[in-house]
Give the backbone structure.
Amino acid sequence: MQALDPQLDIDRFFQRVGHARERVLLLDYDGTLAPFHKRPERAEPYPRVAQLLRDLSRRCATRIVIVSGRRLADLRGPLARIPHDEAWASHGWEHFTVGGDRLGYEPPRGAQRQLQLAEAPARCLAMHGARIERKVASVAVHWRGMQPGAAERVRELLAQAWRGLAMDELALLEFDGGVELRARGRDKGDAVREILASCGPDAACAYLGDDLTDEDAFGAIRERGLGVLVRPEPRDTRAQLWIAPPRELVAFLERWCESGAPR
Ligand SMILES: [Mg+2]
């Protein structure tokens, strides 16, 4: 566990978790709670993580919110495995509410048109071994698990295929193991801001994430809580704390549990 921000006092943070009347834990799934799997439907949480989250929820009155880049339809498996109060999917474009409703945001028409144009040539890259994912507001091309040369070839072909797209309403974003063409307008930071807006000013909260797409969330939580980068290696980030999974992830959740349990 390593503070990346010299102003961070981690003992004080956990004291706050202990005294707060409201506790909120915002969590990415793939790469954060679960190691990556070439077939995402098989990505299981690290050992002990699901049980610790259950304890957090029951004994420490912690609200658990999953904030994932997956489509909500593809998040059903993880949501069945880990306790949660609500979930945000597709980088903030889909919301599975506390009441169990699915709310979706519509990307602007122009962006939808360009995403449609982007999808067909991306799908052709499946023959080179890439995995293509169409979400509410994006097209993602995954090359995780491919040989470096083949992955590079996919990257080049994709750059050629998407060269003619009108990019004013789209953003091209790298993530760990692929690239995503996404409508501008919403990201994980928006999901975090909306969750925080529903909390009292003194709520103790933290966001745990691993990927570049989690940086918007780290930026959004910075003023109110703790951003935690969960990764084997640190990197340039807006998170204030770095933990290496699974050992330090488990230690972080255990400490939250001990701090928040009723005395
Ligand atoms: Mg992730």
Remarks:
- The helical segments are 10-19, 49-59, 72-81, 109-124, 148-161, 188-197, 215-221, 247-260.
- Residues 18 and 258 are 8 Å apart (CA to CA).
- The domain at 109-183 is CATH 3.30.70 (Alpha-Beta Plaits).
- The chain has a mean pLDDT of 94.
